[in-house]
Amino acid sequence: MSLYHETATILTGPSTHGGSLKSRIFGNKDLKSPPAQVYALAFEASKWSAVLKEVVENTQLLQRERKLSPVLSILLTHDLLLNKGGIALPASHGLRASVEKHRVRLQSEFTRARLRRKCPTLDALKAMVDAQLGPAHPRWVRVNAIKSSLDEQLDTTFNGFEIVPTIADVMSPASAGRKLICLDAHVPNLVAASPGTDFTKTSAYKSGAIILQDKASCFPAYLLDPRPEDGDIIDACSAPGNKTTHLAAILHERGFARGQKIFAFEKDKQRAKTLEKMVRTAGSDSVTVIYPGHDFLETDPNSPEFRNVGALLLDPSCSGSGIVGRDDAPQFHLPALTNPPSTSSDASNNNNNNSKSRKRKRRADVKQTGPEPKPGPGTDTTEPESEKDLQTRLSALASFQLAMVVHALSFPVAKKVSYSTCSIHAEENEQVVAAALRSDVARRRGWRVLRRDEQVRGMAEWPVRGQPLSSSSSSSTSGGEDGMEMDSTALEGCVRAEAGDGMGVMGFFVACFVRDGVEKDWEGDPDGPFLRDERGRIARDVDGIPFLKSTGERAFALQEDENDGFPMELRFAEDGDGDDGDGPFEKDAQGRIIRNADGMPRLKRHRVEEQEEEEEGGDDDEWGGFDD
Ligand SMILES: C[S@@+](CC[C@H](N)C(=O)[O-])C[C@H]1O[C@@H](n2cnc3c(N)ncnc32)[C@H](O)[C@@H]1O
To answer: What is the residue range of the signal peptide feature (predicted)?
Structure first.
């Protein structure tokens, strides 16, 4: 297969497979062409594709050369017009000939495209195209607490990186070529590294000590805040497993309750294989039960298997309209097969990279598999989708998403459910939450949105919140008019992330449903079965287990038999830091585990390091305060 066919295959393959463009290419063992050449062509052609799309359309190249596909037309035109060596194929090759015979026409159309952009020279056009690449997206790295620690990674994988205080420093064009990292201020164990940094060859990546996961994608597990006392956790839509493994990592730091499990559902069997691999690599296989090929909607919430499920993470298929920076390459603009020639106003539209309507229409694809119609090939395109088609697609997605949320809210002892999408559309976000709150099950069981002031520190401090439905809906009828309004407290409880706002995140949405009356279902006591302190909070022992009113004893009997199921006693994972038999966490004089403000238990290791620093007379460690 030629360089051009191989590059075309990479560019039109599912964007959900294999991470960044770089890792998709360099990790592809089947490539016959040199990966560096494929990457250079894919990147450069993508960068120029908005201009080349115009050239191809205006010369009607695709109509003249019926065997040429849209993606190949861009790749070949790129090399013909912009590559010093021209098209890298023998002169007699059919592909090369099919484009070269239109050289004069293509060249003059390219000149017109340049002049329309008011660029007097090719160099000026090159500078403009480079400038339009937009703000670079950082490479987000989550340190997997099951296999490593932030400190260990700072000493190893990030050794040689300069630590800078803000994400703006990491993304600044002035920092190009430097190896920078910034420790995230909102999500524990998360690091932003210079855009395009390739960690896929590091031993930490291969061993699962680090996981490449966008900051916003870390919000759901962090906001759900899984705890030993939550019992079993369901991840309803798991593949490829970023959030499943994040749940496991958070629980690992807190200490899993004995027998506590994460049930990971994945409807797509193929994707379930990726999930299995990721869970194994991340070291969370012993606590994760995978249900490959299993439709979450077909689970029976009342099945004995799920009697201890206290929390669910729901990250269903969505439009994916918020996805940016998944890749280290610019978007690829495909020429239309039948479009009339572009006008100068089309050209100026093409230049308007940041327009909101464009963002909304940007992707015709679906984030992952789901019930909705799938896109055709070439999904990484900017083919406009009509407003009507968009609304039809969004409404199909929203019905599915609502069904998933309502199902999750039906688990008998569940008391927290996070719902997330990487969509920017209110139809999939606030409107789904509003509709779920109005469902029978939500009303009957008292589900509400977790308030901002109840959220873990990083999420409470995150500034971008749910949008009022009338201003966030992409439909011409506002959500409010549809009766989908939410009160301001609930909206404030919703968390959004906005691409391109300087915080280095993709477009994302998450809300956590909670209910306060779970105990009522069990005990018939309006105040629940557990002892409470003077502020009405459930009293818990050092391990977080509540005390029963009836006996004054811990709610769950401690048993040695591991097979007796949850919840019994806490099991601390090996810490490797000289286990003193008293668990890995610092305790106060009363023997209670010391927790940071966000509820994270404080590891003994941190104290030892602080003491060492004090002895060395070092300054306060800026990063030691990360969990505080
Ligand atoms: C957005 S992706 C999940 C990403 C994942 N949470 C992560 O962070 O790596 C949605 C996944 O849900 C799966 N899915 C869709 N409908 C489902 C259903 N009814 N039951 C279980 N899985 C489903 C899709 O196959 C897809 O893999």
So the answer is: none
